[in-house]
């Protein structure tokens, strides 16, 4: 039986307006005027709540199978709690790493019956696995991810230009992107060694910040632009932190180089000046930089140079954060935030003067449509349009709340967002035509499935 979901504020291709979505099975069958609902349908009236396309979170670390750092069950519950309806998992923190088809099958087995939202995965490009890439493409990865610096995981080796070339040669012409952690090892190693030599205090955030200089990002991005241009193959810069790389990217985009860029919610929300010494829950790489840098990222996002915003949710067990020692050089790098992104971005945008229609349109572009396009789901995910999956975030834009532990649905309740005062909250998340959040009253089982490129 078809369903009708209506609100005075539904975000479709025509902008934010009163509308009724007719959902037939898993798909949006029609977008109708607000007061027009077909007969014999189940009706849901959401009043003035915003109906937004479900978020597509293209950068998360689920760490499953093989590590008890997160897992599909908790990660996708957290995603659903924040209006995220599709997650794309990174290939490195699972065991085995997703660098061949056998490992991809192991991840599929781990996800089976546990995912509350739809999921996909990036394959890994590591030293010596270029020959595995064609089979991974055939088996349904969304694209590939590699590092130009130690990834933190010994089994996921970083690559140099020579190996990048081997990988790009295999990916060329396939339409899949190569995602790259854009920091080069040289500048980071030189900075860290010099800090250690000079007896720097590693409990101070300023020491960690100095150990991951802007130059490491700038140099990596210069290399990626050169290769994307030469191979004419889409390259995607993950988690851009340094605004100093922006001029290079402007120039590359003006020349038509196929390079796209994401930044993370934490680079847009926090700033280095406010990070307490020893507070390793803020540790990520590249690091959170100063507020002046943050505002330049916002400008680049507004201007369209930065394509999208992701969480890079990267959890670990509490002990690995080594909070008692507070040593930035010893703590695991990665910020946990899955499920909070929509509210954080909404709050940050309001602080910068965005009004509701524009804010909703930007969020849908940065956090749904463009990540969906990157991962190859365009038309099916990340849009409220006829023929697309009925993946919907139902959002109350005015709800004011403070993040406490019980709001975190991922496994280890560590996050620099604890205590944050936020505006706007997801009330319901619908996955392919049905509400997904489990509640006490209704027993719902996980319906998430693997999403492949369309
Ligand atoms: Zn990451």
Can you put this structure into words, describing what you see?
- The structure is a single chain.
- The protein is α/β, with parallel strands linked by helices and 454 residues long.
- It has a single domain, classed as Metal-dependent hydrolases (TIM Barrel).
- Helix content is 30%, strand content 21%.
- It has 13 helices and 17 strands.
- The protein has helices spanning 72-81, 101-111, 133-139, 161-171, 185-197, 205-211, 214-231, 246-254, 265-269, 291-302, 318-321, 341-351, 356-375, and strands spanning 3-12, 15-24, 27-32, 42-45, 50-53, 55-60, 84-89, 118-121, 123-124, 144-147, 178-181, 235-238, 259-264, 308-310, 392-402, 421-431, 434-435.
- Strands 1, 2, 3, 4, 5, 15, 16 and 17 form an eight-stranded mixed sheet that branches. Strands 9-10-11-12-13-14 form a six-stranded parallel sheet. The chain has a three-stranded parallel sheet with strand order 6-7-8.
- Strand 1 (3-12) and strand 2 (15-24) form a beta hairpin.
- Helix 5 (185-197) packs across helix 6 (205-211) and helix 12 (341-351) packs across helix 13.
- The two termini are 26 Å apart.
- The structure holds zinc ion.
- Zinc ion (ZN) binds at residues 59, 61, 90, 312, 314.
- Zinc ion binds next to loops.
């Amino acid at each position: 039986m078809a369903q009708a979901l209506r609100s005075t504020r539904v975000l479709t291709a025509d902008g934010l307006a009163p509308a009724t979505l007719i959902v037939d099975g898993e798909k949006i069958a029609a977008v109708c005027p607000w007061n027009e609902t077909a007969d014999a349908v189940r009706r849901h009236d959401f009043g003035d709540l915003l109906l937004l396309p479900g978020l597509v979170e293209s950068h998360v670390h689920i760490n499953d199978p093989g590590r008890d750092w997160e897992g599909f069950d908790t990660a996708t519950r957290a995603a659903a709690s924040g209006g995220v309806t599709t997650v794309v998992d990174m290939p490195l923190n699972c065991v085995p790493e997703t660098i061949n088809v056998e490992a991809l099958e192991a991840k599929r087995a781990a996800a089976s019956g546990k995912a509350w939202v739809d999921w996909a995965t990036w394959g890994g490009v590591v030293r010596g696995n270029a020959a595995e890439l064609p089979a991974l493409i055939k088996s349904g990865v969304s694209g590939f991810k590699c590092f130009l610096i130690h990834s933190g995981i010994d089994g996921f080796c970083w690559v140099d230009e020579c190996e990048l070339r081997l990988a790009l040669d295999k990916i060329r012409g396939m339409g899949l992107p190569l995602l790259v952690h854009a920091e080069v090892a040289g500048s980071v190693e030189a900075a860290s060694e010099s800090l250690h030599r000079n007896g720097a205090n590693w409990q101070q955030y300023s020491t960690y910040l100095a150990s991951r200089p802007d130059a490491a990002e700038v140099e990596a991005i210069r290399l990626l632009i050169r290769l994307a241009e030469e191979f004419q193959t889409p390259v995607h810069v993950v988690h851009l932190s340094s605004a100093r790389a922006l001029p290079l990217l402007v120039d590359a985009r003006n020349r038509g180089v196929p390079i796209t860029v994401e930044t993370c919610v934490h680079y847009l929300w926090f700033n280095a000046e406010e990070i307490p010494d020893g507070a390793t829950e803020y540790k990520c790489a590249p690091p959170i930089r100063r507020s002046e840098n943050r505002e330049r990222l916002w400008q680049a996002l507004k201007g369209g140079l930065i394509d999208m915003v992701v969480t890079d949710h990267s959890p670990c067990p509490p002990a690995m954060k080594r909070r008692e020692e507070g040593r930035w050089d010893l703590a695991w790098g990665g910020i946990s935030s899955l499920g909070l992104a929509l509210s954080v971005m909404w709050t940050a945008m309001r602080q910068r003067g965005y009004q509701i229609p524009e804010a909703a349109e930007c969020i849908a572009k940065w956090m749904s449509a463009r990540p969906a396009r990157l991962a190859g789901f365009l038309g099916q995910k990340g849009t409220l349009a006829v023929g697309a999956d009925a993946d919907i975030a139902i959002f109350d834009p005015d709800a004011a709340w403070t993040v406490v532990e019980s709001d975190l649905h991922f496994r280890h309740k560590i996050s620099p967002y604890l205590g944050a005062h936020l505006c706007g909250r997801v009330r319901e998340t619908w996955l392919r035509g049905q509400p997904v959040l489990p509640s006490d009253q209704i027993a719902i089982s996980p319906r998430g499935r693997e999403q492949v490129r369309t």
